[in-house]
Amino acid sequence: MENHQRIPRQNFAGGIGPYMELLDRYLQAVRFWLPTGQQTDIIAELSDDLRSQIEDRESELGHSLNEDEMVALLQQTGHPMRVAGRYQPQQSLIGPALFPLYRFVLKIVAFGYLAPWILVWICLMLFSPAYRAQHSGLALLGTWATFWSLAFSLFGVITIVFAILERFQMNIPWLNRWDPRKLPHVVQRKQRVSRVESIFGLVFSIIFIVWWLGLPRYGDALFGPAATILWQGPAFLWLNPALRAYFLPVLVPTAIMIAQQCINIVRPQWTWLRASSLLVADAISLGIVTSVARIHPYVLFAETGKDAAQHAQVALILNQVIMWSIIGAAVGIGIALLVHAFQTVQTVRRIIGSPRGSASSQISQAL
Amino acid sequence: MTHSKNINADLFENLRLELRRGCLIVAVLAQLRQEHYGYTLRKALDDLGLAIDEGTLYPLLRRLEAQGLLTSEWREENKRNKRFYRLSEQGELILQQLLEEWKTINASLDRILQEA
Lengths: 367, 116
Prior knowledge:
- The complex is a heterodimer.
- By secondary structure, chain A is an all-alpha fold.
- Chain A contains 14 helices and 2 strands, in the order H-H-H-H-H-H-H-H-H-H-E-H-H-E-H-H.
- Chain B has a 3-stranded antiparallel β-sheet with strand order 1-3-2.
- In chain B, strand 2 (70-77) and strand 3 form a beta hairpin.
- The A-B interface holds A 1-7, 38, 41-42, 44-46, 48-53, 77-78, 82-83, 86-87 and B 34-40, 42-44, 53-56, 58-59, 62, 74-75, 77, 80-84.
């Protein structure tokens, strides 16, 4: 030994206290987590360090460490797994270079596949009595077991693919040979709602309201005698009278959008208003559609007469078509709701966190 | 309020560890111009105001040795086998370069802090 620094020690023969077995147990636990080829070497070195610490501590105290003191010393050193972990090379299944892409793909799968799966399931449970009857009790658990197994399988496959990419990423050409000129063009975030868009939206909204309100009176002119028959009955087929309660509420989302369009013509910088109005309109539309869906059958038929069986068949087909149309509409509105919720949050966050500071930008947004 | 304090404490701890990480390498290399075994090295650094726990030091020593910056040998002292470390020739060269870099960064920081 040449110049290494010696530790001054008192004349105390430490390191042989009654609780040294705890140290051996600790070292054994650390050894378990170490790489096989380095276990002996690392443990010998760690053991010497800990024994030196114990000797120093015993010299300070003037007695062998008791159980509590030994436990405290080992606890201070750290959990065996954590201590051993520090000897491992820094490893990650998916590193920081690929992680953003990994998260992006997971989001796509979650919003593009799993979320619609849940929406379709909710719609089927709400609107399809037959499906509901078939999927109650244990069958319901089975359905969700399928969902989770699907979700975990997708998560697992994507993770494995990315772990393999991570392992061989040095060989992925597009990560090493890329051209800034091929990057997407800068997307200008909308700071204002286009007035042209608001005006056209307003015109179409008004046309829709007029058309809808005129439907009962002028439906015959628009759709021929079938409309009048359906609306007014009695005939061999007519709409369920309970649906009439929804005739005016259907216009509420459109009325909200008209209000938004009028305001945005005057205050186009209120981008938050458009996003939040769409969100509210979607929520109300979804509520109406789900309520309407409960009024099954939507089309009633004359149960008497010589063609009753044929009428029943037509009504059945019509009800099925309407039911699936409603389910489709609910799924569409549900997806729109998610998109608009995301856009609303983004808009609000952009306004709150505007780098232009805040004061000027928030005043501009407010005015 | 307490939650916010905890977040700040965690944030500071993370940044402190990041700041220390590079400095510890330089300190260990510099201290190993003299031969040490792990425990005496820790004590020496601690006495000079740079405490480092065994869970950080020993993996670092192994990494530096694997990179050829340190040499080590097992010898018996006080009836126990100890592993003695010393800076290698390559380690001395790298330490010089790191110290130059350190001085440059330090001078830049001083200028930045004076301007701020």
